[in-house]
Amino acid sequence: MASWSAIARRIRVPLGFGFAVVYLWLAQPSVRSMMLGAALMVPGLVVRGLASGHVQKNEELTTAGPYAYTRNPLYLGSFILALGCAVAARSWWIVVVMAVMLAAIYLPVIRAEEAYLREHFPQFAEYERAVPRFWPRLSAFREARGTFSWDLYRKHREYNATVGAVAIMAALAAKLMWISR
Length: 181
Hints:
- The chain has one domain.
- It has seven helices and no strands.
- It has helices at residues 4-26, 31-52, 73-89, 92-120, 124-130, 150-155, 159-179.
- The protein is globular, with a radius of gyration of 17 Å.
- The protein starts with a helix and ends with a helix.
């Protein structure tokens, strides 16, 4: 029987698409909420983009760029992006559903990924002691090595996060125009 973290890893993307339908149904956007939400979404996209341009999944332990401040910058960026989406939608129900999804889906996935890194990269123990799991520290990990790569950014198709954010904002704008008719 598959562990919950393995199931969560497989269902997180399809669940996200399903949630998008519920999100648009529950959303009650205003011009102000969308502007505030967009202001939060941009830093989330930047954090995800920087992380994606540094990480070499399953090849080496990435400790450079945003990984020098938090062990999970992709998830941190996603969290900031989700927060921006929640603010833009102006619905407490959306906040509740997002919090449940974070706890039920992403925390087990993070733990499973860390178990993998612990098993495959001996230097992970030192990195884990020095760098927080989620909330970033103010100073960089002293052993950080690596530089940003646009090739990695493209390889990981991180531009899809920006396309998705623009699509969500366009859908909210369409709903706002439809509501205000």
